[in-house]
Design brief:
This protein is an alpha+beta fold. It contains 2 helices and 4 strands, in the order H-H-E-E-E-E.
Length: 128
């Protein structure tokens, strides 16, 4: 009876402690990886949302301009959410001479090769 009570009071062996530490370390690394992945996705969605707002605002401004045909490769920059966004308007001819496709691209940096977002609509020539 005395030997059983001594075994209970001894505590954990070194192997048991190391195994527990390894399990907690693996769980911690997995948790940090998930948190990092979540942060990167939220940052990307945040950037995409603001770029879409800029593109939508510029598209509305382009549709309000009654100049025909719309100006191709019109560029500009706008500040939104404490950042500068660079937009470019592209005009594409369609099969119908009284209609044009209007593409608005928004970039985070002026020299970025690919836009953060791009939206497209069609505009028709006003009949006099």
């Amino acid at each position: 009876m005395k030997s059983n009570s001594l075994n209970l009071l001894r505590g954990f062996t070194l192997i048991e402690v190391m195994l527990a530490m390894a399990i907690f370390a693996i769980a911690g690394v997995a948790l940090l990886g998930a948190a990092d992945n979540n942060y990167r996705h939220i940052s990307h969605l945040d950037e995409k949302m603001f770029a879409n707002w800029v593109a939508s605002n510029q598209m509305v401004a382009a549709k309000l301009d009654t100049t025909w045909p719309p100006k191709n490769n019109k560029k500009g920059e706008v500040e939104l959410a404490s950042r500068t966004w660079y937009w470019q308007q592209k005009v594409i001819k369609t099969a119908n001479n009284e209609m044009r496709a209007l593409v608005m691209e928004v970039r985070a940096k002026e020299d970025d090769e690919f836009p953060v977002t791009s939206i497209m609509t069609y505009v028709a020539q006003d009949k006099p």
